[in-house]
Amino acid sequence: MDKPKVTVICYAYNHASCIRDALEGFVRQKTSFPVEVIVHDDASSDGTAAIIREYAGRYPDLLRPVFQTENQHAKGVAIGPAFCFPLVRGDYVALCEGDDYWTDPSKLQRQVDAMEAHPEVDICAHCTRKTKGGKPDGFVAARLRDGVIPAGDAVKGLPIATASLLCRSAVYLQTSPMREVRFNDLALLLQGISRGGLLYLSRCMAVYRYQHPGSWSAAHRGMQRLEADQTERQILQAFDRWSGGRYHRSVSWRLSKSESSSLLTRGRVLDFLSPRRFPLLVSRLGRTLRRRFNSFYCSLRWTSM
Fold first, then answer.
1. What angle do CA 258, 183, 281 make, to 5 degrees?
2. Helix then strand then coil, % of the chain, to nearest 5
């Protein structure tokens, strides 16, 4: 096989009910360049590994499976750096969790073409359909047009679905203080946008399953919100230091937003509504209204998904 242009990384665990959708999304991609797919199964107990083996047998030149005999996540192992990073050969890395899936066979081609046209940008994302309990539930990152979103605006909290991300492999494989705090999408996104912002495509090309049985969101919906907010603030503070304060105003805005969320979680409504937070509340309201309008527009545009 020729050196791949894109390496797709898929993390799977007990996704037997939905992994076929993810794998079908990979094998249906139509590109002018070679692609490889690394599928990591973290010792699933529900038949996920058997389905991955089936597809690896049918598409041996495409799929490169990694199977664990013991659950590495439970051991506290960062699976990406430990098992998947050493296998990456592409110039770009695309992500899709085992419980999500791609709906557009031209997704990778479109994203790579866009990135090639914008060498100043390191990361790309697109609109994604969200489903909850198997039913449509709006969109993630719904915007009206393609373009580069400045890093400062992206820092403020543009929601991005993992299944929409594609970035330059040099950036994806890079370590940073943000990813030392927590190896998650926020840390990667901040790392990716720091040089040239976020390249956004308005075409809806994937589905994010929210609270689907076996999904991360379903397994962790009881997770303490305060802990999540605290981790977000730690990542943002690490990014502020790592970027030399270039986006300090945007980071401060996002930190205030996170602190406001914590106040609501604690039931401190009066503190949340204090006059000093009024500008933030107005800004958040405006952003919420824009997101809802954009989501409504996307629902008209992508009704067939």
1. 15
2. 45, 20, 35
Name the pairing type of β-strands 166-168 and 123-126: antiparallel
pLDDT tens column, 194-253: 999 999 999 999 999 986 555 444 444 444 666 888 899 999 999 999 999 999 999 998
Cα separation, 55 vs 40, in Å, equals 13
Q: Would you give the end-to-end CA distance of the chain in angstroms?
A: 33
Question: Average per-residue pLDDT in the chain?
Answer: 86
> Is 102 in contact with 129 (CB distance < 8 Å)?
no
Domains assigned to the chain? 6-219 (3.90.550.10), 225-301 (no CATH)
Residue 235 identity (one-letter amino acid): I
Burial environment of residue 204 by CB neighbours within 10 A (0 to 12, 13 to 18, 19 or more): buried
Which letter, b or e, does each residue of 107-144 get, where b requires 16 or more Cβ atoms within 10 Å of its Cβ?
bbbbbbebbeeeeebbbbbbbbbbbeeeeebbbbbbbe
pTM here is 0.84
Closest CA to 108 of 32, 56, 186: 32
What are the structure tokens assigned to 49, written together?
Answer: 């590994």
Long-range CB contacts (within 8 A, 24+) of 265-273: 265/225, 265/226, 265/229, 266/226
pLDDT tens-digit readout, 76-110: 999 999 999 999 999 999 999 999 999 999 999 99
